């Protein structure tokens, strides 16, 4: 099968996000200039550089009460900071609850019964008990082609690692089984790993 996106695929559901999978989930916590807090998951998320460490996430829709974007991007525009919380498998239901298109007055920490704790390097909350959290300062927001498509880049200014996830000096993802997004309504979980050496190593 071959199709051009501008013409259409003719399938019952768009296959694009199923093709690009699995995708890690960035559970983004932000604080607005008015002090309100927001927590929302994004599967267009990844690390993009080592030195200095940098990450990105993309927001691809808008809410009527936020104009051209969603709460996360609007808050980051205001404050210049955000935190990426890593989602363990046992947090899937709480994460999913925070994916709703709630009114900007809704605090997803409270709504989903998630405990919060203050970040160390930025004025923002993070998810208490998450396997890892990356405190970030905004470097740039890039508007992409298409309505409401924004990519947010941030430099990591602080890293939290849960102590029980460190095994012999290695951050052990199998200790918490990271959640990842597939296509459609589907998710997967990492329960298996293997290692490969690059040529010459």
Automatic annotation (TrEMBL):
Its EC number(s): 1.5.1.-
Gene Ontology MF: a single term: oxidoreductase activity
Superkingdom, taxonomy of origin: Bacteria
Enzyme class: oxidoreductase
Name of this protein: Flavin reductase family protein
Organism: Roseovarius phycicola
Lineage: Bacteria, Pseudomonadati, Pseudomonadota, Alphaproteobacteria, Rhodobacterales
Keywords on record: Oxidoreductase
Domain Flavin reductase like: start-end pairs: 20-173
